[in-house]
């Protein structure tokens, strides 16, 4: 029984759940600091976001089950490893997503809609329709990562404003940085599975430049948010110092094109998003 539960948790990609839940939760806390906290709504929306992301991830595993068998990195996932039957994964995913939409929609109809759009974009548009057809796949799938922020914000505030939209864009920039960096190091796996991720069909030199430019944009937008909303020196210093480190390594990657530098940059940009949202939460809860 417990081993079966463990495999369903693995199917749901818990690391991605943690990050996307945290960004949505941070958005709710920030909105609450401005418009007044409603912890009942926050709790319901938190559960909805967790279930929605878990269900979407499970559906992506269902959609990718045939290519997961081919790729060494994914061959031990529950479906290709025979731990969960595909139809069970499909049913599990639908139950989780429907529950998430109903819970979020109970708080705010727009929150429910954003949860639904996240599922459609991640599981259908990205994984099913475009992942195996175009190098632009993750660009089309990037909005899914930012939709928990919009669902959380509008559920608490009842309105959509510039700040959550900027955070949504920040996540959209971060998503291809994260996915293409991963695909860069596992490009042979993707090539073997016939997935035309950009690092598979583009030279290493071009990928280094693209990743560096996206890193510049990500850092620039983070700092712009601090300047636009006159945030404290704590946010500006924290985002600025971390951003400076990323920019230095990005410049080094553009100039030298060293694979070791690319890996180090990937390890730095992975937690970058979480750090920015932590700084924003501290800013709006304790400083402003």
Structural class label:
mainly alpha
Instruction: Let me know the number of strands.
Output: 0
* Strand fraction: under 5%
Helix tally? Answer: 14
Name the helicity range.
over 70%
**Which sheet architecture does the biggest sheet show?**
none
Spans where pLDDT lies below 50 across 5 or more residues = none
Which overall shape is indicated by the principal axes computed on the Cα atoms? flat
The SSE order reads HHHHHHHHHHHHHH
Terminal CA distance reads 48 Å
**Rg (C-alpha, Å):** 19 Å
* Average residue pLDDT: 94
Structural description of this entry:
With 288 residues, this protein is an all-alpha fold. It has 14 helices and no strands. The protein is flat. The model has no long low-confidence stretch (mean pLDDT 94).
Structural topology:
Blueprint: H1 2-11, H2 14-35, H3 39-63, H4 65-70, H5 86-107, H6 109-130, H7 137-141, H8 143-157, H9 162-185, H10 187-193, H11 198-201, H12 204-228, H13 233-256, H14 259-287
């Amino acid at each position: 029984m417990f081993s079966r539960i463990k495999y369903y948790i693995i199917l749901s990609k818990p690391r991605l759940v943690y990050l996307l839940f945290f960004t949505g939760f941070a958005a709710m806390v920030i909105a609450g600091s401005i418009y007044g906290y409603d912890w009942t709504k926050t709790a319901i929306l938190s559960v909805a976001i967790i279930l929605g992301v878990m269900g979407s991830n499970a559906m992506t595993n269902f959609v990718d089950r045939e290519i997961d068998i081919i790729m060494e990195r994914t061959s031990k996932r529950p479906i290709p490893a025979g731990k969960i039957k595909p139809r069970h994964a499909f049913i599990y995913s639908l139950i989780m997503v429907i529950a998430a939409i109903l819970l979020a929609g109970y708080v705010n109809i727009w929150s429910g809609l954003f949860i639904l759009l996240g599922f459609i974009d991640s599981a259908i548009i990205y994984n099913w329709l475009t992942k195996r057809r175009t190098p632009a796949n993750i660009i089309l799938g990037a909005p899914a990562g930012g939709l928990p922020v919009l669902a959380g914000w509008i559920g608490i505030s009842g309105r959509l404003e510039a700040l959550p939209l900027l955070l949504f864009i920040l996540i959209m920039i971060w998503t291809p940085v994260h996915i293409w960096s991963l695909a860069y190091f596992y490009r042979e796996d993707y090539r073997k599975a016939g997935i035309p991720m950009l690092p598979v069909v583009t030279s290493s030199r071009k990928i280094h430049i693209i990743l560096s430019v996206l890193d510049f944009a990500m850092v620039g937008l983070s700092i712009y948010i601090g300047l636009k909303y006159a945030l404290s020196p704590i946010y500006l210093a924290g985002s600025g110092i971390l951003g400076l480190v990323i920019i230095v390594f990005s410049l080094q990657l553009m100039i030298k094109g060293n694979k070791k530098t690319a890996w180090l940059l990937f390890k730095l940009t992975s937690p970058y998003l979480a750090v920015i949202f932590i700084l924003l939460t501290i800013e709006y809860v304790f400083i402003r």
